[in-house]
Amino acid sequence: MQHKGLRLDVQGLRGVAVALVVIEHAKLALPGGFVGVDVFFVISGFVITSMVVRDLASDAGFSLRRFSIRRANRLLPAAGVVLAVTAIGTALLLSPFGTQQQSAGTGVAAALGMSNIALYFISADYFSEHVQSNPFLHTWSLGVEEQFYVLFPLLLCVAWRVGRSRRSTLFWCITVVAVVSFSVSLVFSFSAVLPGIANPSQFAFYMTPTRAWEFAVGAALALWSARARWHAVHPVAVALGLILIAASAIWIEPGGAYPGTAALLPVTGTALVLAGGARHNPVSGLLAQRPLAWLGDVSYSLYLWHWPLLVFAWRLWPGQQGAVLGAIALALALAALTHRFVETPFRGRTVTSARRSLRAPVIAVVAGSTASVLVLGGALTSWGDPKLASAADQLLARPISYNECLSTTPVSQRDLGPCTWGPADGRPVYLLGDSNAQQFTEAARSAAVGEDRRLVVATWGGCPFLDIGLQRASDASKGAECARYVEDTTSWLRSQPRGTVLIAASSEMVLAADDTFRAGDGSVARTTAAKSAVWAERLAQRIEDLQRSGFDVVLIRTLPHFPGAQRDWWHPVECQNAVAFTDPAACGITISERSVRDRQHAIRTAETEAIRTTGAGQIDLLADICRDGVCSTFRNGTWLYRDGLHISPEYSGMLAPLFRPALAIE
Q1: Terminal-to-terminal C-alpha distance of the chain
Q2: Do residues 396 and 99 lie in contact, with contact meaning Cβ atoms separated by under 8 Å?
Q3: Which end of the chain is more exposed for a tag (fewer CB within 10 A), N or C?
Q4: How far apart are CA 288 and CA 282, in angstroms?
Q5: How far is CA 582 from CA 348, 395, 567, 577, in A?
């Protein structure tokens, strides 16, 4: 069905896509609702290619200048309004302990069309605040789209001019792009480690090269469907396409290797709907009904508004479903207003002078970026509040050289210079394990240097230095990643001077329902008891292997961990701003030592058994963290913990006297 040159079934499909995203983001249902973004990508490839090719074939020809100005007027005014309002909300509502800084930085990148790049580095940072608290998180897909709008028309123009059979050249050029991009996407999605690439699976999710194939499918369809002669099966194609999209929204789980091969489901479904709707039929007519078509009309503004409003609602009223529904209702209202008074006045604006035509987009970009820069500056300086600044300095600090020392690059390939301290001829100390090992860098460095020894830190986020056969349901590549760390580091150690190995790990994966281990007999350990037994066995094996190779081994026992009120683990960002700005110390929490011992009984039992059977040394910090039966994240002006799983660098430095006896050479 056509309406003023616009296919209403395509608008209805946009409405379906944004509805899937909003429902999933609101955590109401449809765990795979994020595939709505893939639907948008295919639609964009289809629509933009149709427009560009139509202009290329016209007498007037295609003008990249005219295209760019129209895209800027179509997208940037609404984005600028939402980005500016979101930046203000970030300053007023979000925590100054990391969330404001990361959100405002993302806002600046979003205004420049690069938020997907910024978010790749933020989300790949193991110590970053939970990315779900970032109100600009959803703009990653807009960054990908904007980069597509810059690059893809150039490719089409070049292919159109160099080919003899212009449409065939375009089609094959687009096909090559699709095949190459899809191949790269598969490699990155399923790789635990790639040379020079931190977190390949995150790269696959966020970056344009690994998403280009989705646009290319829509682009190829725009060229091919115009010649297709299969009208009798058009309704079947639309129906099958909608079924595939619905199935992907229901069955695809977040956290897996994505896009990977799973994205083929929504991408293929979208292609079938677009192809089948080329000729009006009863099934495509359902998508063209006014409610869905209207939702498609406002889909861009709704996409812009819904996520920041949800983040702010969760912040103000955590756990309140009514607040979530209210945020969605407000997003719909604001989307309608933005579409009417911001999008529509600039849509299709006639191109006159570039200066006049780009006035509104430039103002929008300046407004959004300026607001975010101001918030970023205020957050980085703790808004001039000395008490807040003192707390932020400790809570936002990272262990020294943690970017280099906590890495997904195999240890044998790292430059360990920034992760090495002490005399070159000193008997070495190696700190190995996950981030719960790396958090002891300051303590181990001071203790080692005090004993005239050399410290080398070689840790890997989320991976213990144990071969436990980890399988994580929410991260299919994690097990292979951790196995690579253990294998590579073990091989690397054999070539190093003998010394002392400090091993530490959070051990929480023993309790995590999402994690399973592979037992010695090949069975899968799922229960806490079974996983604890595997942990004890593999820890003892690791210690004995190191001892046979001539290393002394010291186990740093699992620290108390602090559960959160709104998330799995306590984090100072849970503290509302009214408290944070009044008395930052009140953002800390305490729990009883008994509750810690009860929760970690299986973990500590496994560690005790491994120490007993191997005679390894140990450092147990429980008594220092928990005094008089109470465990605290804050004490006497010092933040002991920076989140529920990690101690602060400030406190780590204070622990050096407890490390020195274990490193003293007799």
Answers
A1: 86
A2: no
A3: C
A4: 10
A5: 50, 17, 23, 8
Please state the separation of Cα 84 from the chain's center in Å. Answer: 23
Tell me the C-alpha distance between 345 and 379, whole Å: 35
Residues sharing a CB contact under 8 Å with residue 639, sequence separation 6 or more, in sequence order: 391, 394, 395, 588, 633, 648, 650, 651
Three-state secondary structure string covering 20-47: HHHHHHCCCCCCCHHHHHHHHHHHHHHH
pLDDT in tens, 609-648: 999 999 999 999 999 999 999 999 999 999 999 999 999 9
pLDDT of residue 193: 82
Residue with tokens 């939402």: 82
Q: Distance between CA 400 and CA 438 in Å, rounded?
A: 9
Task: Specify whether the CB–CB gap between 535 and 603 falls below 8 A.
Answer: yes
One-letter-per-residue 3-state SS of 335-383: HHHHHHHHHHHHCCCCCCCHHHHCHHHHHHHHHHHHHHHHHHHHHHCHH
Q: How far apart are CA 382 and CA 583, in angstroms?
A: 13
- For 474, the token pair is 């929410």
Nearest Cα neighbor of 525 from 510, 508, 543 is: 510
Least confident of 156-170, 300-314, 602-616: 156-170
| Domain positions in the chain | 2-380, 402-561+606-621+645-661
Q: Residue 57 corresponds to which amino acid?
A: A
Residues 6 or more apart whose Cβ sits within 8 Å of residue 290: none
| Model pLDDT for residues 107-144, shown as the tens digit of each residue | 999 999 999 999 998 875 433 446 788 999 999 999 99
Q: Which fold has domain 402-561+606-621+645-661?
A: Rossmann fold (3.40.50)
Are 170 and 53 within 8 A, CB to CB?
Answer: yes
Structure tokens at 172: 């094959």
pLDDT, tens only, 344-388: 988 766 555 566 778 888 999 999 999 999 999 999 999 999 999
Distance CA 101, CA 137 (A): 13
Please choose, from the candidates 161, 162, 160, 182, the residue with its C-alpha nearest in 3D space to the C-alpha of residue 171: 160
